[in-house]
Amino acid sequence: MANFAKKIVLLIGPDKELLKRLLHQGFDVYLWSPLKAPLDYRSSLKGHFQHEYELPLREFQELWQREFQGVVPSAILGTSEKSVMSRAMAKEAFGHDSQATQKAQFFRYKELMKDELSKNSIPMTPYIYCADVPPLKDVIAKLGLPLVIKETATSGSRGLVISSDQSVLEQALQPGMLAEKFVDGLEYSVETILSNSKILFTNITEYYRKGHINIVPGKLSPELSKKLLALNEKVLKALNASDGMTHLEVYLQGDEFLFGEVALRPPGGFIMDLLEQTYEFDPWQAVIDLELGVKPTIKNAAKYVSASAIFHPGEGEISTILGEEKLRSWPECIRLLIKVEHGDQVATREGLGQNIGHLILRANSYENLLDKLRESEETLQIFVTNDVKTAKLMYS
């Protein structure tokens, strides 16, 4: 084990939430990002390793030594899908974990993930990994229509195609893509915090309206909750997850869960905000503490029910926004952010990360939360190119 400096952190990817926390707590932060550092934090960084992610180990070591000779981070953090292998490689380079990349590959590459979990009898959607391009008719014969085609090393909806149009599918089915059977089921996720392979915390998130509304904790019967948490534990054990935070996505069909995918990083979709509002502990700080080897402060009992609603009205020009101040006045409204104003152009939504704003609500019960979500859809209205878009349409 290397002799780590106590206050040095390597952050992979310009995550502003983590940057703010780390700098506020007095850490020397080195940022690894191929892009310029966020302007607000640029002068506060100790160093910027401005290179592409997923460098070969030897190249990373040579570049790091040349630019930051003698600097050895005590913690290595990253929150994006692109940071997974870079973080693992850096852990090996600095002596944190000699097996990090071997473990991380199963979380980064979906074909390896699914192959490994299939060996462990994890129920999942049928799939075909297209190392070469198989005849489309053979793929359809096995998986049916509509067909899902996705990249193997991304998360969210970017690069995702769901279609029954064979001309669209022919174009999408390229070498290295993953084809899956379409599943028409409810979607949930499980967020897990682990230390030394021991599960410290779990939460079930309900994708109430896919891509737009998440609810924490999700509503499931005690029997289904138990079944989902058992599946989550089996998946993490099969992939040798040991430390940090994971995000498992599943489909519910009838009373059975099908594995979708799992990530070795904190979740998106404002789920971290919902965890903090619901359980009244700071999940970001827990992630930092775990990486530093500090016992995190975690609460497992949900005191509230929270929801995030992500806004996107579709392509067009914003003409008017109504109901914003009324919505802000609600005691249930924890945060409302609208990032556009009159005259702004809104592009077509190509990924789940694209939005024009979001709403965080918190209530004492699931039923009360749904009532406020419905009311918010009537209260907040956005006009785009002269068509009224209520929140309900914005979420759709």
Concise overview:
The protein has 396 residues and is α+β, with helices and mostly antiparallel strands. The chain contains 13 helices and 20 strands.
What does this structure look like?
By secondary structure, this protein is an alpha+beta fold. It has four domains: 8-105, Rossmann fold, CATH 3.40.50.20; 126-181, Dna Ligase, domain 1 (2-Layer Sandwich), CATH 3.30.1490; 185-292, D-amino Acid Aminotransferase, Chain A, domain 1, CATH 3.30.470.20; 305-395, 2-Layer Sandwich (D-amino Acid Aminotransferase, Chain A, domain 1), CATH 3.30.470. It is built from 13 helices and 20 strands. It has helices at 16-24, 57-67, 83-93, 100-108, 110-119, 136-143, 166-172, 222-238, 271-279, 283-292, 324-328, 366-379, 391-395, and strands spanning 8-12, 28-32, 47-49, 75-78, 127-130, 147-151, 161-163, 177-181, 186-195, 198-209, 213-216, 244-253, 256-263, 305-311, 316-322, 333-338, 345-346, 357-363, 381-384, 387-390. An eight-stranded antiparallel beta sheet has the order 13-12-9-10-11-14-18-16, sandwiched between helices. Strands 3-2-1-4 form a four-stranded parallel beta sheet. The protein has a four-stranded antiparallel beta sheet with strand order 5-8-6-7, covered by helices on one side. The longest helix has 17 residues, at 222-238. It is globular. The mean pLDDT is 91.
